[in-house]
């Protein structure tokens, strides 16, 4: 068979050019910023030798404005398929060395192609973002390209996991693709996300703001809640991707993989018996409870810096992946507010989408009161928690460790919201409202007329607590399935989840519900 050396040489030259991106000078500029190139990132994240690229030779339309001499194979994005710790993924990495990674029609075609294959094949999608936004020279075509991408993000939502890693700027319309994905990871010093940059803001509003203060890592991890994880460098970000994937199934038709159990399912921890202080006004760290209940070192917290009055994350119980939702008494007494409601509701829906059972640890005095909360929509945001729990069909178990007062008792996975099992510790307090408020309302006249109001208040408060707030009263009425000793929480959860693993539940047929977003 005859060979065609000329054609082969041309192909090899084009592939070699694709490997260099925007050229050595721009690669060095990328490194000078402390950033890896697109191909270096793929090599660091994917298992060696597993990457299969598509569209390496694709280029833009040379008739675009001022683009005739700016033709680069690949057109600023490296896309394809590979494996991460043996798991198949679809992946793309924007190449900032090529025209600032600007998003083009060709980029959209390549990215949408791998996303379509990912959905059809049931594999996760990983996006490595490093782009200055839409390519201005293409005009409306680059904007239309974003529309194609956003549609793919929405169609893939809840079907296959989507993880975005912000490894540079993500500006303008570009921010909406990661915002539509399941998880967003940002890296200190190099990640920025914003709709409009500092220069535009200065022109329009007169405000002076830096890139970091406008859309830096701490802003989106601690204030806006846009990001879910914060990494110190790119290598740590890639490790977080690998950790996330280890807790997620490949798609919504499969269950997360169980790891070989390494922690005794019968292990009990006596320290749990003393974790919740006798004084119900004293805080404690709910993370300690989580760490002592789940398989050792398996708790992987999501959004640790945002809405710190709530804790959410993945763990393992006897090797099985489980979602954890908990109030955090160490911060704002564990109240539910606007931000924590959004955080909890989103995580509950992620777990439900990917067949991950939910365990909820409840210690919440209620919804945060105040004019600001009311005016900014605590009713609407708080309803998201109720909606998410009621909608979820995965196994759900709640444990009241201490306070479950008023609306917080109902919202935090109560039996009435289709929770499968409800446990309580002996320290639990379950009531319409706390004792001080209840006594003031119910016994206002008696207290006003009493010779010794303080003594009468103490007597009535003690009676109210024993009669109405005791977990045994709730258990007597069937609202709590069992009052358990704190030390046996782990064993009871593992046994209960083993029974519930075969649970079959569904929602009424409908196009979709109307979550109060």
Average residue pLDDT: 90
For the CA atoms, what is the radius of gyration? 27 Å
What is the total tally of β strands?
16
Number of helices: 20
Gross morphology:
elongated
By secondary-structure content and strand pairing, the structural class works out as alpha/beta
Q: Kindly, what is the distance between the CA atoms of the first and last residues, rounded to a whole number of angstroms?
A: 64 Å
Q: What oligomeric state best describes the polypeptide chains here?
A: single chain
Helix coverage percent of residues? 25-40%
- Biggest beta-sheet profile: 8 strands, mixed
Question: Which labels suit this protein?
Answer:
517 residues, alpha/beta, eight-stranded mixed sheet, 20 helices, elongated
Describe this structure in words.
The structure is a single chain. The protein has 517 residues and is an alpha/beta fold. It is 39% helix and 18% strand. The chain has helices at residues 5-19, 24-32, 38-45, 105-121, 140-156, 176-179, 198-205, 211-215, 217-223, 234-247, 286-293, 338-353, 371-375, 378-391, 407-411, 435-442, 444-449, 453-469, 471-476, 489-500, and strands at 52-54, 77-84, 87-94, 125-131, 162-171, 183-187, 192-194, 229-231, 300-302, 310-317, 320-327, 358-364, 396-405, 421-424, 429-431, 482-483. The strands form two sheets. Strands 1, 2, 3, 4, 5, 6, 7 and 8 form an eight-stranded mixed sheet that branches. Strands 9, 10, 11, 12, 13, 14, 15 and 16 form an eight-stranded mixed sheet that branches. α16 crosses α18 (453-469). The mean pLDDT is 90.
């Amino acid at each position: 068979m005859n060979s065609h050396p000329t054609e082969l040489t041309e192909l090899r030259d084009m592939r070699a050019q694709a490997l260099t991106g925007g050229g050595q000078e721009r690669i060095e500029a990328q490194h000078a910023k402390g950033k890896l190139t697109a191909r270096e990132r793929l090599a660091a994240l994917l298992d060696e030798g597993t990457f299969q690229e598509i569209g390496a030779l694709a280029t833009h339309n040379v008739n675009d404005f001022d683009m005739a001499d700016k033709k680069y194979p690949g057109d600023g994005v490296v896309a394809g398929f590979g494996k991460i710790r043996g798991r198949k993924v679809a992946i793309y990495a924007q190449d900032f060395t090529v025209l600032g990674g600007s998003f083009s029609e060709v980029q959209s075609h390549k990215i949408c192609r791998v996303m379509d294959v990912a959905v059809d094949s049931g594999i996760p999608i990983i996006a490595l973002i490093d782009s200055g936004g839409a390519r201005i020279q293409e005009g409306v075509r680059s904007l239309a390209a974003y529309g194609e991408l956003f549609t793919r993000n929405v169609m893939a939502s809840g079907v296959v996991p989507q993880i975005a890693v912000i490894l540079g700027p993500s500006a303008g319309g570009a921010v909406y693709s990661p915002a539509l994905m399941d998880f967003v990871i940002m890296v200190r010093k190099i990640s920025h996300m914003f709709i409009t940059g500092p220069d535009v803001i200065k022109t329009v509003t007169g405000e002076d703001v830096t890139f970091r203060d406008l859309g830096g890592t701490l802003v989106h991890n601690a204030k806006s809640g846009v990001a879910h994880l914060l990494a110190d460098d790119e290598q740590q970000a890639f490790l977080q991707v690998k950790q996330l994937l280890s807790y997620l199934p490949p798609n919504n038709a499969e269950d997360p993989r169980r790891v070989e159990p390494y922690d005794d399912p019968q292990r009990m921890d006596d320290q749990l018996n003393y974790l919740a202080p006798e004084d119900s006004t004293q805080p404690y760290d709910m993370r300690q409870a989580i760490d002592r209940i789940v398989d050792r070192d398996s708790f992987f917290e999501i959004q640790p810096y945002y809405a710190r009055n709530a804790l959410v994350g993945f763990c393992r119980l006897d090797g099985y992946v489980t979602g954890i939702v908990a109030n955090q008494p160490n911060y704002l007494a564990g109240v539910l507010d606007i931000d924590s409601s959004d955080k909890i509701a989103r995580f509950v829906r992620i777990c439900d989408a990917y067949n991950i059972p939910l365990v909820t640890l409840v210690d919440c005095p209620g919804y945060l009161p105040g004019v600001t909360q009311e005016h900014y929509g605590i009713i609407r945001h708080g309803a998201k928690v109720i909606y998410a729990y009621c909608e979820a069909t995965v196994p759900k178990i709640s444990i009241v460790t201490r306070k479950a007062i008023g609306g917080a008792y109902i919202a935090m996975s109560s039996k009435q919201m289709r929770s499968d099992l409800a446990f309580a510790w002996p320290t639990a307090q379950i009531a319409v409202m706390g004792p001080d408020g209840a006594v003031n309302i119910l016994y206002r006249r008696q207290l006003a007329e009493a010779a010794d109001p303080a003594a009468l208040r103490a007597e009535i408060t003690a009676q109210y607590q024993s009669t109405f707030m005791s977990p045994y009263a709730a258990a007597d009425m069937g609202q709590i399935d069992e009052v358990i000793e704190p030390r046996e929480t782990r064993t009871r959860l593992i046994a209960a989840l083993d029974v519930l693993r075969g649970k079959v539940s569904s929602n009424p047929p409908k196009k979709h519900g109307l979550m109060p977003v």
